[in-house]
Amino acid sequence: MSLPDRREAEVRRLLEQRAAEPVPPDLAERAREEGERLLGRRRALRTALWAGALAGLAALLVWALALDPWTATPPKTTSPTAGW
Fold first, then answer.
1. How far is the C-alpha of 22 from the C-alpha of 17, rounded, in Å?
2. What is the pTM of this model?
């Protein structure tokens, strides 16, 4: 027997010796439940991020409307002739 044939025979022997491990009967149900949990967490995170972004946008809008930051500030000094 050559080397590749011997290795192939060894692998075949090992595969034949190994008994098939039983699959739990509720495996599909557990996988579905875990998937639903993961999707729920992702949905909650996405909702929280959108809510945070919208709250930040609303705060920016309120700040901009209240302080009117785009107009120039009036001068703090008075003209020299104003007091005469």
1. 15
2. 0.55
SS3 assignment for the chain: CCHHHHHHHHHHHHHHHCCCCCCCCCHHHHHHHHHHHHHHHHHHHHHHHHHHHHHHHHHHHHHHHHHCCCCCCCCCCCCCCCCC
Domain span at 38? 26-65
* Per-residue model confidence as pLDDT tens digits over 63-75: 988 888 778 777 7
The answer to whether residue 4 sits within a structural domain is: no
Instruction: Say if 14 falls within a structural domain.
Output: no
Position 43 in a domain: yes
Q: Which residue has the higher pLDDT, 78 or 33?
A: 33
Q: Give how many domains the chain has, as a whole number.
A: 1
Q: Is residue 78 part of a domain?
A: no
